[in-house]
Hints:
- The chain has two domains: 23-146, no CATH class; 152-291, Immunoglobulin-like.
- The chain contains four helices and 18 strands.
- The chain has helices at residues 2-20, 130-136, 175-178, 226-230; strands spanning 33-39, 44-54, 57-66, 72-76, 82-85, 90-97, 106-112, 117-123, 153-154, 160-169, 179-191, 196-207, 220-224, 238-239, 244-246, 249-257, 262-272, 278-289.
- Strands 9, 13, 15, 17 and 18 form a five-stranded antiparallel beta sheet that branches.
- Strand 1 and strand 2 (44-54) form a beta hairpin.
Amino acid sequence: MYLILFALIAFLTIPSVSLSQTATCSQRECTGKAPTDHNHGAYHFLTKSRVYQVGNDHFYETCIENLGSNDLEVNWAIPGPESVVPVGCALRAPRPFARRATIDTYSSCLRFGASWDWDRSPFFPHESDQERNSNEAGKDCRTYYMAKAATVGESPVRDLAFQVERFGPSQYDNFKRTLSKIDFDIAINVHPEDGVFVTSISAKFSPAYLYQPEYYSKGFVIRPTEQFIKQDIFSGATGNPLGGYFGNAALIEYTLPIPAKPVQQFVRYAIFSGDEKSVASVDVPIWVNAE
Length: 291
C-alpha cells in the first residue's frame, strides 16, 4: 500500500518539475556548420551557420543553441538573432536572398547574458554583409555596435514567406513571470498589375514555458529601429509600417510601390517590453530604389 502511495506521489510531482523546465520553442538543436562552443560559466551556448535554398530563395541562417541552465539574452550583432534563448532551445535567424553570394567566414560581435558580456562567433556571410564586417573587424565589441540597413544589391521584388521565433519578457523587471514566446509569420506578396508589394508581419504571444502558472503578459511594442525611421525608408507606404503597441497579438501590414530599380535591404524591427526595454528583434526584407 505504501509503495503504491509513494509511486503515485512521485508520478504526480515529476511532471510539474519537468514541465517547468520545458520551453515552448519549436527547435532544440541548431542545424549547420562552423559549430562554435561558448562556455562562460553561467552561460553556455553553441552557434552554427548554414546556407540553404528554398524554391528560388537562398537563406543565410545563423543559429544559437542554449546548452546552459539559465535563460540566455543574446544579440549576434550582424546576422542575428537578437532574443532571449530559453534553456534547452535553439533559435534561428534566417535571411532570404535572391542569389547565393557567399564570402569568407567572418567572426561577428556577439553580446550575451544579463550583464551583456561580449564574444565573437563565426558565420557564413552574404556579400551584402561585407561593409558591416569590414567596419566591425578589429574593433572592440564593447565599445562598438553597428546596426545599419544592409544593401543586398539589385534584386527582384518577389513573393516571400517564412517564420521566425523569438522570446522576450513583456515586463523586464519581472523577467521570469512574463517571459513570452513570440511567433512571427512574415509574408511579402507582389502585385505587379498594381505596381505595389504588400508586407505582412504577424505575431502571436504565448508563455515561454509549458508550465508557467504565474505567467502574465503586458504586451509588446514592435517598431523599426531608429536608423530606419531616419532614413525615411517607408516613404510612400500605406498601412502601419511603424508598428506600435500590441496586446495579445500583432499585425503590421503595409503597401509600398515597386521601385524602378529595386534594391533589397533588411529592416530591423525591435521588440520592446512594456517597461521600454529592448528584448529582441527580427529582420524583414524590403525593396528601395537604387540610388
